[in-house]
Design goal:
By secondary structure, the protein is of the alpha/beta class. It is built from 7 helices and 7 strands; from the N terminus they run βαβαβαβαββααβα. A 7-stranded mixed sheet has the order 3-2-1-4-6-5-7, with helices on both faces. Strand 2, helix 2 and strand 3 form a beta-alpha-beta unit. Helix 6 packs across helix 7. The two termini are 19 Å apart.
């Protein structure tokens, strides 16, 4: 079931979207040590974003120093959801058309940004492009900013969460939950094979192979529509 909040847009002829239309948010609350690697990899992308903002804990000095050295902005908060909302709010006066949210352990192919922007260029009703990833390679998802605004407007109405907030407060499911929330607002989604994540550092996760199933279950439960009048 979807709840379309935006009018259908006519498809346009293929056009190119440059990096000046993109802002990147690197969520590093869970893995501050990965910031340097992900910023180095960002510099190798075939399309360079307009700006990069690192979201991390106030005590993550290594991550903060790495971000500053790379010319990235830094936002420090206790959790990822609050940081994402703060970053999006700070950009209101100069909001990009697209926002890429990725974790610090993400390993993207050099064509990831270019591939995602090409997907958006083909379809004005596309709200989210996800990188295909396993639990050991991080995650990267690009959103149309207009779709994120629709999600914020739907929170507390047809989507759970606080009205006006893009993200919910559950750090473990923010990325996946947000992608599904965009789709529930009537936007299309895509996960092109060219946007698959690269093998990354293997880290121990409790539960082994059961972790992905638990994550999917948590996301689906978190997206239970809000009953009318609740």
């Amino acid at each position: 079931m979807t709840f379309p909040l935006h009018p259908l847009r006519a498809r346009r002829p293929h056009r190119r979207i440059g990096g000046s239309h993109l802002a990147v948010l690197v969520a590093a609350h869970d893995d501050p040590s990965g910031v340097l690697s992900v910023l180095d990899a960002m510099a190798l992308q075939t399309v360079v974003p307009r700006r990069v903002t690192v979201l991390t804990r106030p005590d993550a000095e290594e991550a903060i120093d790495a971000a500053v050295a790379h010319g990235a902005r830094v936002i420090t908060t206790a959790d990822t959801a609050a940081a994402v909302d703060e970053a999006l709010a700070q950009g209101e006066g100069d909001a990009p058309t697209f926002v890429l949210i990725l974790t610090a352990e993400t390993r993207m192919p050099a064509e990831f940004i270019a591939t995602a922007l090409r997907e958006f260029a083909r379809d004005d009703d596309l709200g989210v492009v996800s990188g295909k990833a396993s639990v050991i390679t991080g995650s990267a998802t690009m959103f149309r900013t207009a779709a994120l605004h629709d999600v914020a407007a739907a929170r507390g109405l047809i989507l759970p969460g606080h009205p006006g907030k893009v993200c919910r407060s559950a750090p473990a499911t923010d990325g996946a939950e947000l992608a599904l929330a965009v789709q529930l607002c009537g936007w299309g989604s895509s996960a092109p094979s060219a946007a698959a994540m690269l093998p990354g550092r293997v880290t121990h996760r409790a539960g082994g192979d059961r972790a992905p199933a638990r994550l999917r279950a948590a996301v689906l439960e978190s997206l239970t529509p809000v009953p009318a009048g609740a």
